[in-house]
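Key result, reporting period 2: structure in, sequence out.
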């Protein structure tokens, strides 16, 4: 019987995976060691966690993946792994925007109210950030809008504001009178819970269409195109 749900959250340098082995059971989370030049530890961690809780590939009902914005390599590895597992096992796939993971993690940590709106600012660079404005319904984040925001848009942000370490100064200044910028946190357990809500609403992702969310071209791609005299879209 397929009832287990697995979640991958390695959108940042440090990451984790989570597993709910049974629909009526708890969530078990495991840290994933950062990849190095010799090894990627994601699949080994997934295998270990599933073995610990007696979950075979045929028992997976769905796999969820935090799809960005985040680290270029981490997102590519996470999405490729989720695609492969869904393809091989035939389980469902759910792409979860990483901002929803941040908001749900904040609820789980007691940093955000069960019905409180917020904004999550990620992938900050050159005075812009990918801002996701959300409401919460019974502790589950719902996207209201998302897109690149400049510092001139700071006054339109819903507070509290959760962000990464590179949030533009204009955003930070806008939070001074509203409690300050809240640091973003990510957890695979939160990713799993959001995925369950999306599955309950009938939302699944076609593995063929799964792709990391990149707010702007990756620096590695831009450098490669520059070195080879290529322009975007060429």
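The corresponding designed sequence is given below.
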């Amino acid at each position: 019987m397929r009832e287990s749900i697995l979640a991958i959250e390695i959108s940042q340098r440090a990451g984790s995976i989570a597993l709910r082995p049974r629909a009526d059971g708890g969530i078990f989370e495991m840290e994933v060691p950062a990849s190095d030049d010799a090894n990627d530890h994601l699949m080994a961690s997934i295998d270990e966690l599933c073995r610990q809780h007696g979950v075979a590939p045929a028992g997976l009902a769905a796999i969820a993946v935090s799809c960005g914005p985040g680290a270029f390599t981490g997102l590519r590895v996470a999405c490729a792994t989720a695609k492969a597992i869904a393809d091989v096992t035939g389980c469902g796939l759910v792409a979860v925007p990483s901002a929803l993971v941040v908001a749900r993690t904040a609820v789980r940590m007691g940093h955000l109210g069960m019905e409180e709106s917020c904004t999550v600012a990620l992938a900050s660079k050159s005075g812009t950030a990918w801002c996701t404005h959300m409401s919460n319904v019974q502790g589950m984040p719902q996207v209201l809008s998302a897109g690149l925001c400049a510092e001139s848009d700071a006054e339109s942000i819903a507070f509290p504001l959760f962000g990464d370490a590179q949030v533009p100064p204009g955003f930070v200044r806008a939070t001074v009178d509203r409690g300050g910028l809240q640091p973003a946190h990510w957890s695979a357990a939160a990713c799993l819970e959001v995925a369950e809500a999306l599955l309950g609403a009938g939302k699944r992702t076609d593995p063929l269409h799964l792709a990391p969310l990149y707010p702007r071209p990756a620096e590695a791609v831009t450098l490669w195109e520059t070195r080879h005299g290529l322009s975007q879209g060429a």
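The mean pLDDT is 91. The first helix runs from residue 42 to 52. This case is discussed further under Risks and Mitigation.
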